[in-house]
Amino acid sequence: MTIRPILIHPDPRLKKVCPPVEAVTGELRALADDMLETMYDAPGIGLAAPQVGQLCRLIVMDCEKSEEAAPRPMVLFNPEITWTSEDRTTYEEGCLSIPEQFAEVERPAEVRVRFTDRDGRDREEHFDGLWATCVQHEIDHLNGKLFIDYLSALKRQMITRKMQKVKRERAKA
Fold it and tell me: Which residues of 115-126 are buried (b: 16+ CB within 10 A; e: fewer)?
């Protein structure tokens, strides 16, 4: 497994809509493994393929935060939200592609998601709490949307300017 570099906003690849995965191949399973390794290393709770420069509908996540609980890595190909609750929740979101920036985002509190797992099986799962927020955030990435797109134009511009500075500083290092 390889830890892959994570793209930093603004990067045009983060704004692209990703095409569906036609079939789960060994190459895509290896990408998913690399993405999990990258996510855990960052550390984060979710990562979408475009964040590592791969334009395909693949996300990985593990929202198990408890020290006692075993990790619960999930690999979702072609995830699609099939139902959302009317109840809403607000969570302070961050993003590995927008380091050290956080903002409150309101989303449905519960969602049902249909996806293909790493073995090529079609599945559907109900998510709530942090898992629901995370899966929606990662699916947004597949549609070229970032959490800052939910913010006011002014806040979005301020964060974008900070990220441009971070990218310049990293380029010099």
Answer: bbebeeeeeeee
Q: How do residues 99-157 score in pLDDT, each as one tens digit?
A: 999 999 999 999 999 999 999 999 999 999 999 999 999 999 999 999 999 999 999 99
- pTM given for the model: 0.96
Domains defined along the chain, listed by start: 12-172 (3.90.45.10)
Catalytic residues: 138
Q: Which structure tokens are listed for 105?
A: 């985002």
Distance, CA of 108 to CA of 137 (rounded, Å): 11
Q: What is the pLDDT of residues 87-109, one digit of tens each?
A: 999 999 999 999 999 999 999 99
CA distances from 102 to 37, 77, 96, 155 (A): 23, 27, 11, 11
